[in-house]
Amino acid sequence: MAEQGEHPVISGRPESGWVNRLSHVILFGMMLYAVIGIPEFDRKSAVAMATDHVSPLNRFIWLTLLALALPVMKEKWRSIMGLFKASWPLMGLFLYFTCSTQWALDPAVSLRRVMFAWVEIVLAATVVCGLKGSVAILRAVAFSCVVAAFADLLVWIVMPGYAMTDEGLAGLQLQKNQTGIIMLYGLLAVGALLPFVKRRVWRWAGAGSLVLLFVLLLASRSKTCLGIVLCVPGLVWLIGQLGRRRFSVGLAFVATVCALSGVGSFVYLVWCMAMNADPLAPFRDMTFTSRTDLWAFMFDEISARPWLGAGFSSFWSIDPAVQPSLKTSMWFGSEAHINEAHNGYLDLLATGGLIGFLWGVGVLAWAVALGCRAFVRSAKVQGRGVGVLALPSALFHLAFLLSLCIHNFTESNLFSNNALLAVALYYSIFSLENWRRNLPARASAPWAGARLEVDNTSTIQAEEEPAPERHQEPRRFLPVPRSL
């Protein structure tokens, strides 16, 4: 539980209005820049610089946001330090990443990238502590992604040859996968927020935004993002259903799924043995758009540095003299410049070693567990009070974390310097941990009397209903006999 005076909901201390307003400015600035970035209309020359953060304008924007957040840091210093302490798994992971710059293949690039990661972490924690409610983050995400969608649509109309590449719609982004990520992120945010908006004009605007985001996702031809959009709602629904049952029911469900998978695999192997067929024959021709060659190369490089890795972000887009991908004759695909392994877990293993990989996967599992707990708790309550996260925010954080876990099997953006997904991951972790650390210590349900309301301006508010007063009859004492 947070200390008294640290959280306004618990302590009763009113939140400073300027802190909330300045936090909103920083939040929208971060999200808009993370989503849109600096447009580069010379895509061939910009691809090699995509992950280097060497642009002076990029440095200026992030450092300006950090300077803008200094008054909020001063006002909310104790709360920010408490949030860092509570989020010790994430902090410890990035301390390890910082130490890895000492043995990195390119120490200068690795140090520069980890410093920018720390800037994003500090800004995310500051904004989470400065905002009054968690729904503000969801609104900022939805607004930023819709703005990016309109910008991509405009570029597609005005400059169709530049926006539409051979692989799919890229719009203002460097490649179509980045456009697919933005559309996926926007669909999750708008989809989580829309059911809780009552005003008709905003509901129609949200529905139109969903259609636009989905159409652009189809145009990007990002099969991974499209698959995630189709399967994640079902996973979230399943988690919600299991959360309403006893723990033994959920455990029995998981055991049943594992048993059925094992029985199915055994039956398949028996059939292959009876038919004298190769069990791996259906999978031998699967290349995942030439990713398997790249993954084979990654396994060779991981075996060369198994424990500590190549250092944080010190494998791709570094000094050509030491970059491992330039020392091989293997062919990786149609693109001349490869700046990721197209598998976030392999990239994490290559840069952080086995230590960083296990720690990073543990942090991800911890975040998903927090998301499940917050969603189940909020779904039961349908509200937000002390110890209850707003249902739209809990829904979005869980959907985003599940999407991130799935997405990194074919793309690489796990604890990387990808501004959009890095900022989104930090916001989700800090929001969930800020909710957890402010849970009341009492064992009774803290959500009693909480109610979620959506007003006519589509803003989500929570208020605490006072407990009904009990009318007690005055005690009547019988006269005591004098003999007693």
TrEMBL record:
It holds the Pfam family Wzy_C. Residues 467-476 have a biased composition (Basic and acidic residues). GO terms for molecular function: ligase activity. Residues 458-484 are annotated as: Disordered. Residues 209-358 form the O-antigen ligase-related domain. It is found in: Membrane. It comes from the Bacteria. Signal peptide: none annotated. The chain crosses the membrane at residues 18-36, 56-74, 86-105, 111-131, 138-159, 179-197, 204-220, 226-243, 250-271, 354-376, 388-409, 415-432. It is a multi-pass membrane protein. Keywords: Ligase, Membrane, Transmembrane, Transmembrane helix. One of its GO terms (cellular component) is membrane. InterPro entries: O-antigen_ligase-rel_domated, WaaL-like. This is O-antigen ligase family protein.
